[in-house]
Design a protein that fits this description.
Strand content: under 5%
CATH superfamily of the largest domain: TRAP transporter T-component
Number of helices: 15
CATH architecture of the largest domain: Alpha Horseshoe
Structural class: mainly alpha
Distance between the termini: 84 Å
Helix content: over 70%
Largest sheet: none
CATH class of the largest domain: Mainly Alpha
Shape: globular
Number of domains: 2
InterPro entries: TatT, TatT_sf, TPR-like_helical_dom_sf
Length: 289
Protein backbone atom coordinates (compact mmCIF):
# COMPACT_ATOMS: atom_id res chain seq x y z
CA UNK A 1 0.00 0.00 0.00
CA UNK A 2 2.81 2.37 0.89
CA UNK A 3 4.56 1.61 -2.40
CA UNK A 4 1.34 2.26 -4.34
CA UNK A 5 0.85 5.57 -2.55
CA UNK A 6 4.38 6.65 -3.41
CA UNK A 7 3.88 5.70 -7.05
CA UNK A 8 0.60 7.61 -7.24
CA UNK A 9 2.19 10.62 -5.57
CA UNK A 10 5.04 10.51 -8.06
CA UNK A 11 2.63 10.31 -11.01
CA UNK A 12 0.59 13.20 -9.61
CA UNK A 13 3.75 15.29 -9.23
CA UNK A 14 4.79 14.56 -12.81
CA UNK A 15 1.34 15.53 -14.08
CA UNK A 16 1.45 18.77 -12.09
CA UNK A 17 4.87 19.63 -13.44
CA UNK A 18 3.70 18.79 -16.94
CA UNK A 19 0.65 21.00 -16.56
CA UNK A 20 2.80 23.82 -15.27
CA UNK A 21 5.26 23.47 -18.13
CA UNK A 22 2.45 23.26 -20.68
CA UNK A 23 0.89 26.48 -19.37
CA UNK A 24 4.22 28.28 -19.49
CA UNK A 25 4.91 26.97 -23.00
CA UNK A 26 1.49 28.17 -24.12
CA UNK A 27 2.22 31.64 -22.77
CA UNK A 28 5.62 31.65 -24.42
CA UNK A 29 4.09 30.64 -27.74
CA UNK A 30 1.57 33.48 -27.41
CA UNK A 31 4.18 36.21 -26.92
CA UNK A 32 4.35 37.15 -30.63
CA UNK A 33 0.64 37.95 -30.46
CA UNK A 34 1.21 40.21 -27.44
CA UNK A 35 4.09 41.92 -29.21
CA UNK A 36 1.98 42.38 -32.32
CA UNK A 37 -0.89 43.77 -30.27
CA UNK A 38 1.38 46.39 -28.68
CA UNK A 39 2.72 47.39 -32.10
CA UNK A 40 -0.82 47.75 -33.44
CA UNK A 41 -1.81 49.85 -30.43
CA UNK A 42 1.17 52.17 -30.89
CA UNK A 43 0.02 52.74 -34.48
CA UNK A 44 -3.60 53.50 -33.51
CA UNK A 45 -4.78 57.01 -34.37
CA UNK A 46 -8.21 56.82 -32.71
CA UNK A 47 -7.65 57.68 -29.04
CA UNK A 48 -11.03 56.37 -27.92
CA UNK A 49 -10.45 53.01 -29.57
CA UNK A 50 -7.01 52.78 -27.96
CA UNK A 51 -8.38 53.69 -24.52
CA UNK A 52 -11.24 51.19 -24.78
CA UNK A 53 -8.94 48.34 -25.81
CA UNK A 54 -6.24 48.72 -23.17
CA UNK A 55 -8.05 47.33 -20.09
CA UNK A 56 -8.80 44.04 -21.86
CA UNK A 57 -5.20 43.77 -23.04
CA UNK A 58 -3.92 44.41 -19.53
CA UNK A 59 -6.23 41.78 -18.04
CA UNK A 60 -5.08 39.31 -20.70
CA UNK A 61 -1.48 39.83 -19.67
CA UNK A 62 -2.37 39.51 -15.99
CA UNK A 63 -4.07 36.22 -16.73
CA UNK A 64 -1.08 34.95 -18.67
CA UNK A 65 1.22 35.91 -15.80
CA UNK A 66 -0.78 33.69 -13.45
CA UNK A 67 0.32 30.77 -15.62
CA UNK A 68 3.85 32.07 -16.26
CA UNK A 69 4.84 34.34 -13.36
CA UNK A 70 8.53 34.32 -14.28
CA UNK A 71 8.06 35.43 -17.88
CA UNK A 72 10.27 38.52 -17.83
CA UNK A 73 9.20 39.87 -21.20
CA UNK A 74 5.52 39.61 -20.32
CA UNK A 75 6.00 41.40 -17.00
CA UNK A 76 7.80 44.23 -18.77
CA UNK A 77 4.94 44.49 -21.25
CA UNK A 78 2.50 44.64 -18.34
CA UNK A 79 4.58 47.37 -16.67
CA UNK A 80 4.62 49.27 -19.96
CA UNK A 81 0.86 48.84 -20.42
CA UNK A 82 0.02 50.15 -16.95
CA UNK A 83 2.26 53.15 -17.50
CA UNK A 84 0.82 53.90 -20.93
CA UNK A 85 -2.79 53.53 -19.79
CA UNK A 86 -2.28 55.70 -16.71
CA UNK A 87 -0.33 58.43 -18.49
CA UNK A 88 -2.27 58.50 -21.72
CA UNK A 89 -5.82 58.14 -20.51
CA UNK A 90 -6.28 58.28 -16.73
CA UNK A 91 -4.10 60.77 -14.85
CA UNK A 92 -5.58 63.97 -16.31
CA UNK A 93 -9.00 63.11 -14.91
CA UNK A 94 -8.30 60.70 -12.05
CA UNK A 95 -4.78 61.12 -10.59
CA UNK A 96 -5.31 58.70 -7.70
CA UNK A 97 -6.45 55.90 -10.00
CA UNK A 98 -3.47 56.61 -12.23
CA UNK A 99 -1.17 56.38 -9.20
CA UNK A 100 -2.58 52.93 -8.44
CA UNK A 101 -1.84 51.81 -12.00
CA UNK A 102 1.70 53.18 -11.83
CA UNK A 103 2.21 51.16 -8.65
CA UNK A 104 1.01 48.00 -10.39
CA UNK A 105 3.40 48.63 -13.27
CA UNK A 106 6.21 49.24 -10.80
CA UNK A 107 5.54 45.95 -9.04
CA UNK A 108 5.79 44.01 -12.31
CA UNK A 109 9.12 45.59 -13.21
CA UNK A 110 10.49 45.17 -9.68
CA UNK A 111 9.58 41.48 -9.78
CA UNK A 112 11.95 41.12 -12.73
CA UNK A 113 14.69 43.10 -11.01
CA UNK A 114 14.38 40.92 -7.92
CA UNK A 115 15.13 37.91 -10.11
CA UNK A 116 18.28 39.76 -11.21
CA UNK A 117 19.49 40.43 -7.67
CA UNK A 118 17.84 43.77 -6.86
CA UNK A 119 15.90 42.41 -3.90
CA UNK A 120 13.54 44.31 -1.66
CA UNK A 121 16.20 44.34 1.05
CA UNK A 122 18.62 46.04 -1.32
CA UNK A 123 15.99 48.57 -2.41
CA UNK A 124 15.24 49.30 1.24
CA UNK A 125 18.89 49.56 2.21
CA UNK A 126 21.59 52.15 1.65
CA UNK A 127 22.09 53.77 -1.74
CA UNK A 128 25.70 52.65 -2.09
CA UNK A 129 24.72 48.98 -1.91
CA UNK A 130 21.98 49.59 -4.46
CA UNK A 131 24.46 51.33 -6.76
CA UNK A 132 26.87 48.40 -6.52
CA UNK A 133 24.14 45.97 -7.54
CA UNK A 134 22.93 48.21 -10.36
CA UNK A 135 26.45 48.37 -11.76
CA UNK A 136 26.36 44.59 -12.18
CA UNK A 137 23.27 44.68 -14.41
CA UNK A 138 23.69 44.62 -18.18
CA UNK A 139 21.61 45.16 -21.31
CA UNK A 140 19.33 42.22 -20.48
CA UNK A 141 17.78 44.23 -17.64
CA UNK A 142 17.30 47.54 -19.49
CA UNK A 143 13.54 47.11 -19.99
CA UNK A 144 12.93 46.17 -16.35
CA UNK A 145 15.06 49.09 -15.15
CA UNK A 146 13.33 51.52 -17.47
CA UNK A 147 9.75 50.58 -16.62
CA UNK A 148 10.51 50.33 -12.91
CA UNK A 149 12.02 53.83 -12.88
CA UNK A 150 9.28 55.28 -15.10
CA UNK A 151 6.39 53.90 -13.06
CA UNK A 152 8.14 54.66 -9.79
CA UNK A 153 8.74 58.31 -10.68
CA UNK A 154 5.14 58.82 -11.76
CA UNK A 155 3.85 57.14 -8.60
CA UNK A 156 6.06 59.47 -6.55
CA UNK A 157 4.80 62.47 -8.52
CA UNK A 158 1.23 61.59 -7.57
CA UNK A 159 2.18 61.08 -3.91
CA UNK A 160 4.28 64.18 -3.23
CA UNK A 161 2.46 64.70 0.06
CA UNK A 162 3.96 61.47 1.44
CA UNK A 163 7.46 61.64 2.88
CA UNK A 164 8.14 57.96 2.13
CA UNK A 165 7.35 58.53 -1.55
CA UNK A 166 9.73 61.48 -1.85
CA UNK A 167 12.42 59.44 -0.11
CA UNK A 168 12.17 56.86 -2.91
CA UNK A 169 12.99 59.34 -5.69
CA UNK A 170 16.80 58.88 -5.54
CA UNK A 171 16.31 55.15 -6.11
CA UNK A 172 14.16 55.70 -9.20
CA UNK A 173 16.77 58.14 -10.49
CA UNK A 174 19.54 55.58 -9.96
CA UNK A 175 17.62 52.95 -11.91
CA UNK A 176 17.10 55.31 -14.84
CA UNK A 177 20.71 56.46 -14.70
CA UNK A 178 21.73 52.84 -15.27
CA UNK A 179 19.44 52.74 -18.34
CA UNK A 180 21.14 55.89 -19.64
CA UNK A 181 24.54 54.27 -19.19
CA UNK A 182 23.54 51.03 -20.90
CA UNK A 183 21.55 52.41 -23.85
CA UNK A 184 20.51 56.06 -24.06
CA UNK A 185 18.32 55.36 -27.10
CA UNK A 186 16.12 52.76 -25.39
CA UNK A 187 12.37 53.27 -25.86
CA UNK A 188 12.46 56.53 -27.80
CA UNK A 189 15.38 57.81 -25.70
CA UNK A 190 13.05 57.68 -22.71
CA UNK A 191 15.88 58.07 -20.20
CA UNK A 192 16.67 61.48 -21.68
CA UNK A 193 13.02 62.48 -21.33
CA UNK A 194 13.11 61.30 -17.71
CA UNK A 195 16.14 63.44 -16.89
CA UNK A 196 14.82 66.37 -18.89
CA UNK A 197 11.83 66.38 -16.57
CA UNK A 198 13.88 65.57 -13.46
CA UNK A 199 16.27 68.47 -13.97
CA UNK A 200 13.75 70.92 -15.38
CA UNK A 201 10.89 70.54 -12.92
CA UNK A 202 12.80 72.02 -9.95
CA UNK A 203 14.49 75.35 -9.40
CA UNK A 204 18.31 75.32 -9.09
CA UNK A 205 17.90 76.05 -5.37
CA UNK A 206 16.11 72.70 -5.02
CA UNK A 207 18.54 70.72 -7.13
CA UNK A 208 17.25 71.48 -10.61
CA UNK A 209 19.53 72.19 -13.55
CA UNK A 210 17.95 73.98 -16.49
CA UNK A 211 20.92 73.58 -18.83
CA UNK A 212 21.10 69.87 -18.17
CA UNK A 213 17.35 69.57 -18.65
CA UNK A 214 17.52 71.28 -22.04
CA UNK A 215 20.45 69.08 -23.05
CA UNK A 216 18.46 65.92 -22.30
CA UNK A 217 15.43 67.18 -24.21
CA UNK A 218 17.66 68.01 -27.18
CA UNK A 219 19.19 64.53 -27.10
CA UNK A 220 15.73 62.95 -27.06
CA UNK A 221 14.66 65.23 -29.92
CA UNK A 222 17.72 64.23 -31.94
CA UNK A 223 17.32 60.49 -31.42
CA UNK A 224 13.66 60.71 -32.48
CA UNK A 225 14.45 62.84 -35.55
CA UNK A 226 12.24 65.63 -34.19
CA UNK A 227 9.13 63.52 -34.80
CA UNK A 228 8.20 62.64 -31.21
CA UNK A 229 5.83 65.36 -29.97
CA UNK A 230 6.01 64.22 -26.35
CA UNK A 231 9.50 65.77 -26.16
CA UNK A 232 8.13 69.28 -26.71
CA UNK A 233 5.14 68.55 -24.50
CA UNK A 234 7.31 67.64 -21.51
CA UNK A 235 9.72 70.50 -22.09
CA UNK A 236 6.82 72.96 -22.10
CA UNK A 237 5.12 71.38 -19.09
CA UNK A 238 8.19 71.21 -16.90
CA UNK A 239 11.14 73.31 -18.10
CA UNK A 240 9.33 76.24 -19.75
CA UNK A 241 6.86 76.43 -16.90
CA UNK A 242 9.59 76.29 -14.25
CA UNK A 243 11.49 79.07 -16.03
CA UNK A 244 8.29 81.12 -16.36
CA UNK A 245 8.88 81.27 -20.11
CA UNK A 246 5.32 81.77 -21.27
CA UNK A 247 6.25 82.50 -24.86
CA UNK A 248 8.15 79.22 -25.26
CA UNK A 249 5.40 77.36 -23.38
CA UNK A 250 2.67 78.69 -25.65
CA UNK A 251 4.64 78.33 -28.86
CA UNK A 252 5.74 74.78 -28.14
CA UNK A 253 2.24 73.55 -27.28
CA UNK A 254 0.68 75.31 -30.26
CA UNK A 255 3.19 73.68 -32.59
CA UNK A 256 2.31 70.28 -31.14
CA UNK A 257 -1.39 70.81 -31.83
CA UNK A 258 -0.72 72.02 -35.37
CA UNK A 259 1.88 69.35 -36.20
CA UNK A 260 1.04 67.17 -39.25
CA UNK A 261 0.93 63.37 -38.91
CA UNK A 262 4.37 61.80 -38.68
CA UNK A 263 5.73 59.31 -41.19
CA UNK A 264 6.80 57.09 -38.28
CA UNK A 265 3.72 54.91 -37.78
CA UNK A 266 5.03 53.45 -34.53
CA UNK A 267 4.56 56.74 -32.65
CA UNK A 268 1.14 57.73 -33.97
CA UNK A 269 -0.63 56.94 -30.70
CA UNK A 270 1.79 58.76 -28.43
CA UNK A 271 1.80 61.77 -30.74
CA UNK A 272 -1.98 61.96 -30.64
CA UNK A 273 -1.84 61.69 -26.86
CA UNK A 274 0.66 64.57 -26.87
CA UNK A 275 -1.74 66.65 -28.96
CA UNK A 276 -4.59 66.06 -26.54
CA UNK A 277 -2.42 66.84 -23.52
CA UNK A 278 -1.13 70.01 -25.19
CA UNK A 279 -4.70 71.31 -25.38
CA UNK A 280 -5.17 70.55 -21.68
CA UNK A 281 -1.98 72.39 -20.75
CA UNK A 282 -2.87 75.44 -22.83
CA UNK A 283 -6.04 75.81 -20.79
CA UNK A 284 -3.84 76.19 -17.69
CA UNK A 285 -1.63 78.90 -19.24
CA UNK A 286 -3.33 81.85 -17.58
CA UNK A 287 -3.23 80.05 -14.24
CA UNK A 288 0.47 79.23 -14.42
CA UNK A 289 1.83 82.49 -15.86
Amino acid sequence: MKTLFLRLSFIFLILQLGACSMAELTVKASMPMITGGITALNRETDLQLAEDSMPANIELMEGMLINAPDNEELRNYAAQAYYGYAYGFIEDNNPQRAANFYKRGLNHALYNLQQSGITQNILSGDLQTLQTELNSLDEDEIASLFWAASNWAKWIDHNRDKAEAIADLPKAVMLMQRVLELDETFYMAGAHLFFGVYNGSRSPMLGGNYERSEMHFERARKFNKKQLLIVDLLQAEYLDRQQFNQQAFHQRLTQIIDAPPTSNVDILLINNIAKRKAKILLKKESEWF
